[in-house]
Every structure is written in C-alpha cells, then in structure tokens.
Inverse folding.
C-alpha cells in the first residue's frame, strides 16, 4: 500500500515531538516551520515549568490541575526517549511559591489550594505506577518558616512561601537536543523559512498547504495535516472554517536567559498574578521574568499583532533592566548577574491562550488553562498545546490518531 502523506505545521515543541513520534511509528513526515530554524520561538524561550497545577491557585475547581497532571507525569520519559538522555540533568530543584502582598489569592487560600493539588497529584501517581516525575510527588507542601523565608527573600512584598513538589527544565538545552534529533531523522523532512498562509481542501478530502515558500507546490495533496503551530494557529484553522471558542488572546512574553556557573539564585515563583519568577537549572543556565517588563505585545485578533513585538535593541535593554531591577528587590543575587553571568540575553515568543483579561484580576479566565484539546476534521488535526509541559504527551496522542486515520 502507498503510505499516506502526512505534514506537520510548526516546528515548535509540539510539532517537532509529533514529527518524531510519527517517525518512530514508521511514517514519513513533512515538517514545515516559518522561522529560519525549528524550536526558535516560545518552545525554546520559556521557563520550562513541568506543570502539575500549583501555579493555578485562582482556579479553585482544580480543573486546570486535573488536566495538566497527565502531561506533567509523561514529560520526563517521553522527552528522554526522544533525545536519548535523561532530562533530569536540565531540571531545577523543587519550586518555591512566594505569595505576593498583592496576590489575587491570599496566603491561607494558596496554602489550602496547594495542599489539595498535592493530594490530587499523589492520587494520580498512585493510579499510574509507571509515572516518573522530576521529583518525589509524594512529598508534602512545606510552608516556609519565618527564618526560611528570610533566607530566600528580604522583600516586605512577600507574605508567605511554600515549597512544592514541582520542577522546571531548561528549554534551551532541550531545544538544542531535539533540534539535532529531528534534523538527523531520515523520515522527517524539515522545511524552514516556510510560512503557512492557508489550507485548501480538494473534493477527495486531500489537503493543500499554501505557503510563502518558492517550493509551495511541494506541499499539496496531503492525506493528514497536523496544525501544531503556536503562533497563528487559529488563523490557519480559519481558512478551513474552523474557529476556536472565544475569547482567546495572544501575548508576546520576553525574559532574561543566561548561564552562570556560580550563583545563589533560587528557583522561585512570585504568585498569584502579574509578577515574575526565577529558575536556576542544573546545567548552569537560568531564566528570569518580570511580567510588566516582559509583556511586549498582546491582542485578541485571530492573528497575533506581530509588528508590535519586535525585539529591537532598545526593547531588549528595557526588558533586561526592568527584569533585573524588579527581581533584585526580591532576590539579591540578581544584582550580580550583569557582572558574573557567562551569558545574558533577552529572548521571547508568542503565547496563545483560550482566555482573556488581566492576571491582576481574580476573575480573569487566564487563571484557568483547562480549555485545551484538539479538533479533528477529515484528516486535518489542529492541536491547542496550552502549556509547554503538555506538548510531548499531546504529540504522542496526535501521532497515533494520524497513524490510525
């Protein structure tokens, strides 16, 4: 039998993992990416939190945590299998959540939520004995004592701290390894600098991919097309009449990335609202973000306002200064990074979410991330990743759907 033609749109975490999962199932794959290289957007430039739900304390239903846990459990083994080495090398220590004075969830409410989430995680682990997370998920949430909190931060804006069994990974390190694997895979045919503009369906159901590339004729009559785009996915869906549920929003987030072999930076999240976080990975890399400094553009159009998000030198300088200055008020070690870091740069990418509003508003639907999934329509599969940590889990699922289609 002639093998069905399969294409994957988007060379981010979801797209690359999907292409590799299809290859491991013996399928040839065409992978199309608009940037000059795969894994150059938000999949590379983010904090890499492998979510179990602790961040979403403004969702007391636990719906977000419930939906995030399976992907978080699956992430380490799925990615380690793809890159051929353990992701533990690139992880942080257990996160500390620091409740900000202006948090939309007060300290006692966060404590109760975190305990309920930890119970949910332990229960899920007991039902899935093969699950291997990045740390011991049977550990209880630990509320920091006054002296422990003072060792971590001297800011009066922090009213409480909680250590939880949740970790992050260095997205830069993982992107480098996945990029090499996908380029080396003989079944995955990578096309970069190829921007997808629209989809067209033939009467027989096969699909043409209309792109900005000169070799656009090569992208016609596919049996299966998987839309794994992060930036602009709804706009491509709309060319086939598929419109996501409203409201949705796009945001371009930038942070500070670097490497410092010797630093006392912690791994901590200031919550819950538009604050920031610090991540220190075991491979010497680190990530810093301050929401106000790093939010460069946002919109609710079907296509993101790309022109508003260019990382000019002036903007990079503002993000760098605003982020380091803000975080130095909480973590003194941040002040030394300009002098001590071996690498220091500002990078970012577009984030898409079903939800809208301000994170400073408890009622904002951005405090919930349970509305993700996929649309399957006669060989066209569009996938809303929702979070970086879900991408490998969703990739394995969508690859099997594509093979069985």
């Amino acid at each position: 039998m002639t093998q069905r033609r399969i294409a994957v749109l988007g060379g981010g975490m979801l797209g690359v993992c999907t292409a590799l999962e299809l290859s491991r199932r013996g399928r040839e794959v065409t992978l199309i990416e608009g940037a000059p290289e795969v894994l150059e957007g938000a999949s590379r430039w983010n904090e890499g939190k492998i979510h179990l739900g602790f961040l979403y304390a403004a969702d007391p239903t636990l719906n977000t945590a419930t939906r995030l846990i399976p992907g978080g459990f699956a992430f380490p083994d799925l990615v380690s299998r793809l890159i051929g080495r353990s992701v533990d090398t690139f992880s942080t220590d257990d996160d500390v959540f620091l409740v900000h004075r202006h948090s939309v969830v007060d300290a006692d409410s966060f404590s109760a939520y975190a305990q309920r989430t930890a119970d949910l995680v332990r229960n899920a682990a007991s039902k899935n004995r093969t699950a291997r997370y990045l740390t011991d998920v049977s550990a209880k949430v630990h509320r920091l004592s006054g002296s422990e909190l003072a060792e971590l931060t001297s800011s009066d804006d922090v009213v409480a701290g909680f250590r939880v069994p949740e970790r992050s990974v260095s997205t830069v390190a993982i992107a480098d390894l996945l990029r090499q694997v996908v380029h080396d895979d003989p079944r995955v045919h990578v096309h970069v600098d190829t921007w997808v503009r629209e989809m067209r369906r033939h009467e027989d159901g096969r699909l043409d991919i209309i792109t900005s590339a000169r070799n656009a004729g090569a992208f016609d009559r596919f049996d299966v097309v998987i839309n794994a785009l992060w930036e602009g996915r709804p706009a491509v869906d709309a060319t086939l009449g598929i419109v996501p549920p409203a409201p949705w929003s796009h945001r371009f987030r930038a942070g500070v990335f670097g490497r410092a072999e010797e630093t006392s930076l912690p791994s901590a999240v200031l919550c819950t609202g538009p604050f920031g976080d610090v991540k220190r990975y075991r491979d010497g890399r680190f990530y810093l973000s301050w929401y106000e400094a790093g939010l460069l553009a946002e919109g609710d159009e079907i296509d993101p306002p790309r022109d508003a998000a260019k990382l000019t030198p002036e903007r990079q300088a503002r993000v760098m200064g605003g982020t380091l200055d803000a975080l130095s008020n909480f973590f003194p070690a941040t002040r030394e990074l300009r002098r001590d870091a071996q690498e220091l740069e500002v990078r970012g990418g577009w984030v898409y979410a079903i939800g809208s509003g301000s994170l400073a508003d408890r009622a904002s639907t951005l405090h919930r991330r349970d509305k993700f999934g996929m649309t399957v329509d006669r060989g066209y599969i569009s996938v809303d990743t929702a979070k970086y940590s879900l991408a490998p889990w969703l990739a394995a699922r969508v690859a099997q759907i594509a093979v069985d289609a």
Summary: Residues 98 and 161 are 4 Å apart (CA to CA).
